Known about the structure:
Elements: E1 6-9, E2 14-17, E3 27-30, E4 35-40, E5 47-49, E6 56-58, E7 73-78, E8 81-83, E9 96-102, E10 105-112, E11 115-122, E12 129-138, E13 144-157, H1 159-164, H2 166-172, E14 175-178, E15 181-184, E16 194-200, E17 206-210, H3 211-214, H4 225-229, E18 242-252, E19 257-268, H5 283-292, H6 295-313, E20 316-319, H7 323-343, E21 358-359, H8 360-368, H9 375-386, E22 398-399, H10 417-432, H11 454-467, E23 512-513, H12 514-533, H13 537-557, E24 567-568, E25 574-575, E26 585-586, H14 588-595, H15 604-615, E27 617-618, E28 621-622, E29 625-626, E30 652-653, H16 657-666, H17 670-680, H18 689-692, E31 700-703, E32 714-717, H19 722-734, E33 737-739, E34 743-746, E35 756-763, E36 766-773, E37 782-787, E38 790-791, E39 796-798, E40 805-812
Amino acid sequence: MSNPYGHFEDPNREYVITRPDTPLPWLNFLGQDEYFALNTNTGGGYSFYKDARLRRLTRYRYNEMPYDNNGRYLFIKDGDTVWNPGWKPVKTELDSYECRHGLGYSRITSSKNGLEASVLIFVPPEENLEIWQTTLTNNSDAPKTFKLFSFVEFCLYDAQNDSTNFQRTYSIGEVEIEKNAIFHKTEYRERRDHYTMFASTRDIDGYDTSRDDFVGVHNGIHEPKAVLAGQPNNTQAFGWNPIGSHYHEITLQPGESTKHSYILAYVTVSGEKYIAPHVINKEPANAILDKYSDESAVDEAFAKLNGLWDDQLSTFQVETPCPIMNRMGNAWNQAQCMATFNLSRSASLFESGIGRGMGYRDSNQDLLGFVHMVPDKARQRILDISATQMSSGLCFHQYQPLTKKGNDEIGGGFMDDHLWLILSTTAYIRETGDVGILDEKVGYADVEEKTATLLDHLELSIRYTLENRGPHNLPLIGHADWNDCLNLNCFSTEPNESFQTASHNTAEEVAESLMIAGLFLKACLDLQGLYKFIGADAKAEETAAAHAEMLEAVETQGWDGDWYLRAFDTYKEPIGSHKNEEGKIYIESQGWLVMGGAGADNGRAEKTLDAVHEHLYTEDGCVLQQPPYQTYHLHLGEVSSYPPGYKENAGIFCHNNPWIHLALMQLGNGDRAYEYYLSVCPAAKEDKIETYRGEPYMYSQMIAGKDAATPGEAKNAGLTGTAAWTFLTISQGFAGIKPDYEGLQIDPCVPTAWPELKVTRKFRGKTFNITVQNPEGKSKGIKSLTVNGQAVEGDTIPLSSAAEENEVVAVIG
């Protein structure tokens, strides 16, 4: 069965949506620098500058009826018919509809009664604005006169205050109108340095800035009063709810087209530019409008955007026998890595932009799938993140992107956060060779003097874990580890609750995490390699000793007979054990411990991954644990609060599936890794899209597991660590292209049926055109490696001997 809602067009890197009533709104992320826009296939979404909480430009209503309520809308009144190019919000039946989601842009094209409207929406590189280039064509055989209304609803910048503090916000909204531009200047009176411009490059015939007048107090956005009346009110808002709407009266002859653009811009002015507290300086805004009033400038900006994506994606391109992997690895997976790098988990259709900023753990992981595209941005992000670690070793779990300050509402207590910094930093240095970043002084969040270097942070992170271990010599879990919902220091006094006995009347916060132990092991391996690269041999030996000590604790205390435990609770009882009635086996510790080197010499690595296959694998991916929890257990925390099969309670939490993929490939099991990869990949879900519901081009946070009432249903698409880890699955797993400190390692793990694959990889200013041949039908192991016809010993190409352009042939055998 094919997808009735759309299809991929790989040559254009576009997903073409042919029905507007998709199972859920299907989203595209626009913007790469400081201005970001969320845009759905019907024009829904919102825009913000840097910070979706503190610099929200337009309003959006979450959990509304219908979904995806509010956005960037054009209303067309053609005679008695009112319609939108994106179908919503009026939902008039269209004669044709198409939305092309591309990388950094969306183009919505629709027609009704012989009139075609096409709207190209994008954010130009390095500019704090979005453009809606609008083309209107009369395809009928008679002249057409129609009326066109634009619409955005302004947010009063602080999205939390805007959505809660109505006794204030209904009084402070201010706008100005000049020629074709509407200026939203709320906050300017407070001597802020910003305002929003919403302008048309076509001369307007009217406008509205009051929502009450344009929409009506008792009307919905699907029935705006001014549009139904066919004329604007030319209102200026004073408080209440300011909007921006331009009005055009347009006549087109048969076959005639007209083109103009709308510009929504975040404009900043320096302090000396203020004229008066209530009068905005329009010079920078007018310069923007003057520039884009020439439609050729819009075309040039769009070409620049496409060229930027061409350049960024050219760093890694792969050609395998799997079209789905090629499609995702070459375009969509990397595009999602860009979105997660920029937004962490702050703003999507499921994250409101208010409750979460940039996650410490999240952002470090997102870097892993992004660092090859724009290393300079990755470098700055690492420094920003590290500055939110405290001198104790704990980290602010989240920080606000505008201020780069830790979020006090979230605080610390997550005992895995600090270790992720080692993975991101070493990945950056392997990619770039830039060891100078280690000497950057970033300080600690709770210390005024900025004397601590980035290397100090890495060493503190190792030390903190070693100094905070529990009764089994394993890392303490604190509030939680990667699984935010596994809260094992919640105390229960219920006498017969699962995992407890009557003697458990008092408890200490001594719960331990095997997942953190695995992450620690991997961090030690990465840091040990870095120490060797910079010549710190003594520290490399210390780190190896720390790895060995933790590994011994894992193997002596953490093995359950057929798999590794997940944790010990605050009563020192095992979690993820055959002793438990529910939650006998968890996924996270199996993947991380194998990646960290556990089970390598005693057969346990293979055995634990076989247990994953037996107990956790399904055709939609591996569930998080089995069996699910049927009732709530206070001493386990939020993990048992979800119904069986959803999210952390035996849902398919997509983020942790690639950890198993990479662990399988570490052991050379390419066939099973490939089966697992396809099981969770959204582009492989098109034949069951009515069940899956999510975007086919973008990973979701979770898929309902086999114990759920709706197995196979996706939720929370967009901002998930699945993007970065799955890109590593493709690029460093199947393709096996692994940047190393002094060269490029070629270590693929492929399905045995693949005869070959090809990769283009740019690395430190040099290009490597790599062909991996598999004549013997094996999965792993380099039999021979040649570079420009010359044999290379081992599996690593020394950068020192590589040319500017290199032809590489690697043979598996």
